[in-house]
Input
Amino acid sequence: MRRPTADLVLTGARVRLGQGQWAGAVAVRGGRISAIGPDFASVRDLIGPHTRVIESPGGLVVPGFQDSHVHAPFAGLDRRRLSLHDVQGRSAYLEAIALYAQQHPSKPWIVGGGWAAEHFPNGRPRKEDLDTVVPDRPVFLLNGDLHGAWLNSRALEVVGITRNTPDPVDGRIDRDPVTGNPSGTLQEGAAYWINDHFVPQPDQQEWEAAVLDAQRYLHSLGITGWQDAWVTPATQAAYESLAAQGRLTARVVGALWWDRKREMEQLPELLARRERGLAVVSPTAHLGSGFFPTSVKIMTDGVLENFTGALLEPYCDGCGGHSDRRGVTYLDRDLLATAVTELDAQGFQVHFHAIGDRAVRESLDAIHCARSSNGRNDRRHQIAHVQVVQPEDIVRFNELEVVANCQTFWAQSASERDDLTIPFLGTERARLQFPFAGLLASGARLAMGSDWAVTTADPLQQLEVAVTRTSPQDRDRAPFLPEQCMSLDDALDAFTAGSSYVNHDDQGGRIAVGSRADLALLDTDIFAPGFVTNHAAPISDARVQITVAGGSVVYDAEG
Output
């Protein structure tokens, strides 16, 4: 009896089924993988008059990538306003800001972001630079890692920040060392407070447009699903609206933002938001797509570059000695354990931000408390970033069944790390950064996320850094802690099966008959013999040709 015809057949390319497992053709019907075969002949009988056949000799079919830590609405918003992410250097920043202000004379605030600390002395841009290009309107620009902001004098005046304004408990106002006046950069909570209370906020229509812009871009990179690591009530409303309309073609897990100033009284609101989000159903949605607000994001510390990353021992002073700074923990250790235990009991996954070794340890301790109180379960808690991890804590990831959510693109030599991080960690502690191979060897499960728009959303660039610990833009540079390199097999599995696991998507991250058809077709077989060697791994030179989500082609490089 003839098998039902397929909607889509991919052939000519190798199909990666798993480590060391290959096929030559895959067929899709009704949103699911209906057949897998060794070659075109094995699926020829599935081709009917309405079957789309895509032949890609020399290509590679992999499961659709899932980004386990991304800020899609904010990144999409950056793409629609002043973005400095692709601009390099102080002078270029000022030219771009001046041009944007000239092109948007009616905007009451100049808002955007993406600047990098490495382009300024001590990583701190000053208000006077902005004053030269925009003297008459307030300017507020978040930096690329979203942990600080650059303001001009007019903005500081509007929000009322002076030399007498005290630092907030969860942030810092950078000041001129001579006059004590605000110098033009705000760190952590100081920046967030200005953003929340003074900077004009997008309306729902703008947020929806931002999500759709981000979705188009992520699909073009082979990404079929993600976990949004910073979901506010406003961005949740946008996701829910798009899901209800059937316009959300990706599968999105939402990590609801934990307000560190509200403590436990916010739990009923988080439960209500989860219930409301899970109730959204669209009759026209793609198979598997939708918005699932089942996680909670807790920031436990800041970042190392501005000394807010939480360390067990003090920061070095950059001159061979030690300072008295150990960074910031945004939740008291006991409160963190209480919050995680209750969230775990209520069925939430907890998505931690933890950069420093103290933040990582206290996050693991909180999960241990939850396990002790509630027993083992399937929450799949995750700790993102894991920049500095003590060896005795590496083994705890596997013991506590915690997923290490890795931002592999960060694990390369860069001027920001060389100048603003390593001198203040010290040589011994600097060797503990991004221990991906060590985590794998301990039995831990890894997922991968980009943290876009902090760094690139391109999975292929992230895979290359995971394998080489070297920048794709500077391949001759010495690798950063090469003993922590991952194999391409392990790295790809982390970006597909690992991220699907942490997203509670047991249909994603694999190519198997009956599974949801989430696929990415690359123009290059990056697993071909000799493609990745000890001397070269040009993985990011490959390009995505086709992205399939829930059986539908959501991106086609040829239009």
The chain has a mean pLDDT of 94. The domain at 204-502 is CATH 3.20.20.140 (TIM Barrel).
